[in-house]
Specification:
mainly alpha
């Protein structure tokens, strides 16, 4: 569904593109935007960790009861290895 709401990845991509296209130093507003986006990224990470620790174990129990593979978060190292 298209809501018109920008997602974090879109905001990060736009900021990266704007900074990357210009050969000068980042503007003050771009620097401030970086701080705002870092805060949002930290909040998203905290939300993920909360879900992973509170909801996933119960879901894994239900999956195992049905003889299905439990969910497992991929580590950064595992993800990097798959990208090669």
């Amino acid at each position: 569904m298209i809501t018109g709401e920008k997602k974090l990845r879109e905001n990060l991509g736009e900021l990266y593109g704007a900074v990357n296209q210009y050969s000068g130093r980042p503007t003050q507003s771009q620097i401030e935007n970086t701080i705002v986006l870092q805060k949002k990224l930290d909040e998203a990470g905290a939300q993920f960790r909360s879900i992973a620790t509170s909801e996933v174990p119960a879901l894994n129990t239900a999956l195992q009861d049905k003889q299905l593979e439990p969910l497992k978060a991929t580590s950064r190292e595992e993800w990097d290895k798959k990208q090669q």
